[in-house]
Specification:
The chain is an all-alpha fold. It is 72% helix and 0% strand. Helix 4 packs antiparallel against helix 8 and helix 6 packs antiparallel against helix 7.
């Protein structure tokens, strides 16, 4: 639905509406079909691209595709190496970090596609789908799902490394001491830490991507007002898109680094 056919408020509200086929009654536990489908397709594309490049990799001079993948792998491995010091990082941590980085990066990069081209021309006219949000990480349910997955991995590694008894002992006896009088304070302190990690992990990514989506929508609305609005919106949109490249990459990097940090902390004893 083009911006010329709607008021600015209606236009923005239209593009911020999730697909009607979403599973759930609304709220936090709703599975938004547009976010799930887009994230799944992007994940398959990312893994498929990596598999395709690795399948054709050679020991000689790499082509551009292989050089790009090698650069990404080496970059992520270097970051993981500096943080995770508790065993073989190549068994799980480094591959998981690479997967998280590439997946979140692709989901963030959907914000660069003009919303009217994606939602209006492709989905509405070709697929007859009237509501579709193409940026999964601008959906708080998506970022919380990612963050909670990392949170569950953190708990899993806590139990695996320390044992269930060791983990429970740490909850009640760290950081203030083993005195039974201090158990409530220790448990409260650790509970706040466990709750804050998925909150900060998810809301940081969501807030930045949602704000970027809103700014792009405002620029598209402005571009539809007049010729002068089109010119200024195009210039500002280009500037914001260039700046947004930093945000897209940086947020994927931060999400990956926090994933590694949280799992690494699970391997440490207090």
């Amino acid at each position: 639905m083009a911006a010329q056919e709607l008021t600015p408020a209606q236009y923005i509200s239209h593009h911020l509406t999730f697909n009607a086929q979403s599973v759930g009654e609304g709220g936090f536990w709703t599975l938004h079909v547009d976010s799930v489908v887009t994230a799944t397709v992007l994940g398959i594309l990312a893994l498929g691209f990596m598999w395709w490049v690795v399948r054709g990799a050679t020991a000689g001079v790499p082509n551009k595709r292989q050089a790009f993948v090698e650069l990404c792998v080496e970059f992520v491995d270097t970051q993981v190496k500096s943080i995770f010091l508790h065993g073989d990082r190549h068994k799980f941590i480094a591959p998981a970090a690479l997967t998280v980085f590439m997946w979140v990066l692709l989901m963030n990069a959907m914000d660069f596609l003009p919303i009217d081209w994606v939602a209006t021309i492709f989905f509405e006219k070709l697929l007859h789908v009237h509501y579709w949000r193409p940026v999964p990480t601008a959906d708080v349910n998506t970022t919380f799902a990612l963050a909670l997955s990392v949170w569950l991995l953190m708990i899993f590694f806590n139990m695996k490394v320390k044992g269930v008894r060791g983990w429970v002992h740490e909850l009640f006896c760290a950081p203030f001491g083993r005195n039974p009088l201090l158990w409530p304070a220790n448990l409260l302190f650790n509970a706040v830490e466990y709750v804050s990690k998925p909150l900060s992990h998810s809301l940081r990514l969501f807030g930045n991507m949602y704000a970027g989506e809103i700014i792009f929508l405002l620029l598209w609305v402005w571009a539809a007002t007049s010729l002068a609005g089109t010119i200024f919106a195009t210039v500002l949109g280009l500037g914001w898109a260039i700046f947004h490249i930093l945000i897209v990459v940086l947020q994927a990097y931060i999400f990956m680094m926090l994933t590694v940090v949280y799992i690494s902390m699970a391997h440490e004893s207090h």
